[in-house]
Amino acid sequence: MKFFATYLTPLVFLLFPSLALASGDNQEWIDLTSHWVGYTAIAVFVIGYILVIFEEQIHMRKSKPVMMSAGIIWIMIAAVYVNNGFTHSAEVAIRHNFLEYAELFFFLMVAMTYINAMLERGVFDALRSWLVAKGFSYKALFWLTGILAFFISPIADNLTTALIMCAVVMAVGADKPAFIGIACINIVVCANAGGAFSPFGDITTLMVWQKGLIDFATFFNLFIPSVVNAIIPAAIMHFALPEGTPKPNTDETVKIKAGGLQIVALFLITIVTAVSFHNFLHLPPVYGMMFGLGYLKLYGYYIRNFKENVPAMGNVDLPPSSEANHDGFDIFDKVAKSEWDTLFFFYGVILSVGGLGFIGYLSVSSAYVYGELGPDVANVLVGFASAIVDNIPVMFAVLTMNPEMSEFHWLLVTLTAGVGGSMLSVGSAAGVALMGQARGYYTFFGHLKWMPAIALGYGASIYVHYLING
Question: What global pTM score does this model have?
Answer without folding.
Answer: 0.75
